[in-house]
Structure formats: C-alpha cells, structure tokens
Here is the input.
Amino acid sequence: MSLWRNRNFSIFLAIQALSVAGDSFSTIAIPLLVLRETGSVVQMGMMTALSGVASLAAGAFAGLAADRLDRRRLLIGCDVARAALYALIPLVWIVEPQIWLLYVVVPAGAALGMVFQVTYVTVVPRLVGKDQLMRANGHLYAVYAAASVGGPALAGLASQRFGPTVALGVDAASFAVSALGLCLVRLRPAEAPTAAGRGGFLEGARFLWRQPVLRWLTILLTFYIFLTAGLDDIVIYYLKNDLGQNDDAVGVVLTCGAVGALLGSAAVARVRGRLGFGPTWITAIALSGVAIACAGLGPAVPGVAAVMAGFVLSQSIGGISSQSLRQEITPDHLLGRVTSAFWTIHFALGPIGAGLLTLAASRHGTPLVALVAGGAVVVIALVGVLTPVRHRHPARVEAAVREAGRV
Here is the structure.
C-alpha cells in the first residue's frame, strides 16, 4: 500500500509537521530571549547544556516507558504537558520577566521531548511495513523540513516585532494541536507480541553493544554530537555579535537550514539505495564537517545561510540513514529501550560540548572554533571507514552476528 494511502501515517505526518513548525519558534525564541534578558552567549550555551542534561536523564527511563506503556497515549501525554509548560512563559512575562523560569521550563520540556522522540521512533514501524521504513522516515523528515522552511522566518519576524515570548506561545499552541491530532491515529499491534522484560536502559545498551555496526555508530555519533550540539547558538551569536544582524536575519538563516533538511530527506532513500548505508553515512558526516568549518567564515548573511543549508542537508541524510537502520535491526519489543539507550549515550557529551563551544566562541571567536570543530567532525567520518559502519548492507552483518550467537 502506498504511504500516502495509509490514513494513520498521513495523519501522523500532518500533525507532526505542524508541531515541528511550532518548535521552530521556540528554537529561535529561547536563545533570543536569553540573549535579550542577559546579553550573554555563555548563558545561551548553559541553557542548551541544561536542556541536554535533562534529555540525558529522561533517556534513562524513556525507552522502558515506550516499551511498557501505550505508545499513542504516551505521545499525547508528552504533547499536553509541553503545551502547558511553554504557555507558562508568555503568561508570566506579561506580569514581569522571570529568567529563572526558563531554567525550569526549558529543561522540563527537553525531558518530555526525549520521551516523545524515543516513543515516536517506536511508533513508525507500527504505522508502515519494514520495507517502507526508509521512505517513511524520508517523508517525515521532508514534511518536517517543509514545515520548518517558513517557521524560522516567521519566528524571527515575530520575535523582532512582538518579542520572543509570543513565539513561545505559538509553540505551546502547536503542542496542543498535535495532541488532539494524535487522538485520531491508530497503531498496528506488534508483529510478534513479546513481553517487555524486566531490563530497562541497560538491556537496550547491551543490545547496542552486541551489534558491531550499531556499537560503532553509537560511539562515533556521541563524539559528533559533542562537536555540534552548540552550533545553532554560535551561529546566532555570530550573526548578532559579529555581523550585527537583527532577529529576522537569524530566522532567515535557520530557514535555509530547513531547506537543506528538505533536500536531504528527499534524496536519502535514493542515495542510500545506490551507495548503501556505509558510504552514504560516512560521506554525509564528512560533508557536514566541511560545512561546520565554514560556519564562521561567511562575511554576510547569504554565506552563513548557504553553510547552514549544507550542514543540515548532510546531517539529515546521515540521521535518517542511522535511524532507519536501528528500526530495521531492532525487535519491536526492544525498540524503545534500544532507542533510549542510543540517544542517551549519543547525547551524553552534548551538554559539555555545547557549553565549551559557546565559551570558546566568546573568547576566541566563531571562525576559529567552527574551523576546529568542523575538522574534528571530518576525522570522525574518516574513523568510520575503519569500522564495520563502512559496510553497504550492515543489517546483513548484524544478522550474521546474531546467527553466530545462536550456534
């Protein structure tokens, strides 16, 4: 059956696209609000780092929750809670700005976001067949990117004209609409229902460790996130501090990043089909490193926008490929815990990296920091060539490993 004739997938696609469009408002509004209230890029980095820590903590139980609880209801609950949290900021700011509230709401929203993201990954195989996973993930990223194209530009304009708190109110409304839409989605039962088991995070981590390709992919992406978690913050800082641009310019640059994601998600199924997983993933990571290295070299907004488009295009191809591979390899009853373990380990160094990247940018300037970080990302891609990640069809490698373990 065509994905577009799949009612449940189509509804899921539409409502999540709306939610992502709303998310683009908070992606821009939070750092702008922090910068406006404190004038500090370091505090921007600290906010990103604190959100990362909250996501990391939530990852320890998110997978077990996704494997044991009703996944659709869990998604709805996360959306309702985030709608309430982000609505608090504009309501409180009407009376008086309270910067401390951001340090409560943003990490809590990030923790709920981690639970949602882990559960979301486990839901996709219940909406489409395994042979449609790569294309389904590509469609999801493509529609998300399309929804994000106008979102950042509108968010920048709204923040410039009405203030960042209004943009956060739009994000809260998008979560509420997403929750209502999820009520219309129905999931297929698991192909082979299995008890979730007693193990939690560690069971997912053990599965990752036993699979050579997933093990190396997790290690390499952990260092990748360390180097890239603070990229949006230093790009915003570069635009505002070095180039003297307004909030709407920030929105335009991030919109160009969304265009890159749209192009990458539209191409990923065809590229991986021709090149195989390993060459696709390694090339995408290497190209994203080159883009990062150029992030602080653009003398004007168009140059920075082109760099961000190239970075996000490459990152989306690598991300869709790796997510689809995990969904293909992992049994349904373990998918929540494997996803949780992967993302928890994957993001473990992100908060530290975001803090260090923004601190280094404030002391040494964005061009030098971006050049060093981008070069290190290219090294990660080169290391991948020496690992099982390089294989064109890694699922066959993992199947052979599992078969050998039964002998």
Summary: DSSP finds 16 helices and no strands in the chain.
